[in-house]
Structure prediction request, 203 residues.
Amino acid sequence: TQMAKRCTTPRACCIDQRAPKSADKVGPRPALSFAKKTDCEYGYMMQIKETRLPEVLILTPARHSDARGFFSESWNAQTLAAAGIHHHFVQDNHSLSKAPNTLRGLHFQTPPHAQTKLVRCGRGALYDVAVDIRHGSPNFGKWVGVELSFENGHQLLIPAGFMHGFITRAPMTEIIYKCTDTYAPECDAAVRWDDPALNIDWG
Prediction:
């Protein structure tokens, strides 16, 4: 497990500091009330943990809470690059499953549109599964599953070359995930969730 941290250089927050245009009427300058660090945090932390398939990672962002609720930074390219994780996401997907025990998968896209995914749970709870299908991989055909929920805040980073599927644990579960390539129907592929060669335990 490691922690990735963003630059902690202070900055003024929550204030529109644009210079007025020449045509704007400029009145007396109001006294500015700068947000305190407790109101506008900087320096967000991300916990990074390997699974039994080392390329599949659990990313857990810190939640900065107060009486109003919390704020978390689910992805920051600069922060993760400093930890050796480099991905450029181009599409976000959002799925709702009304009933518990709804199973979706196993899905993947083939090259040249293979996708790395960053999966999180926006509401409810789910069991997320990744399967290594990279030819020549010592872990070919092996799978790993991780419980993702709104409460635990875990995210699963699933590299290209892995299948993805999940089963919901609670009603009205929302799954939100980022992809490094857009949907390409000609490369869309799937394997049955109960394929005996994989022997996935969905719980």
About this structure: The helical segments are 77-82. The first strand starts at residue 2 and ends at 5.
